[in-house]
Design brief:
mainly alpha
């Protein structure tokens, strides 16, 4: 199977979810591409030319939901430099929780939320 990317016709930058004016200019393609790469790394179903996916929309929604929850509540990135020190999770930095969640906590909370 040969992958051939489609031809790009054009782009239009618009503000969404309350991001307007100068703040819209802080969003760049590198942020989006980094998130896309992280999603492909965590969810093998998004790799190109793979059979590791399900055709059910509910399964794709569940996979994205668990990725987003794990990435925001459990995942810690490293601080720049050579220290190797980890930053708090995104949920901690937003003040939503006081600790980094384990996957077990996240899974139990997701089952309780149904």
């Amino acid at each position: 199977m040969i992958y051939t990317p489609s031809e790009m016709v054009g782009t239009k930058r618009t503000g969404i979810r309350g991001i307007e004016g100068r703040d819209a200019r802080t969003i760049c393609t590198s942020h989006v591409e980094r998130l896309n790469g992280t999603q492909r790394l965590f969810m093998k179903r998004l790799n190109r030319l793979t059979y590791a996916f399900s055709k059910k929309l509910e399964n794709l929604e569940a996979a994205f939901g668990m990725f987003a929850a794990y990435y925001n509540w459990c995942w810690q990135t490293r601080k720049p430099g050579k220290s190797g020190e980890k930053r708090p999770s995104a949920a901690m930095m937003a003040g939503l929780t006081g600790h980094v969640w384990t996957f077990d906590e996240l899974f139990d909370e997701s089952l309780r939320g149904e």
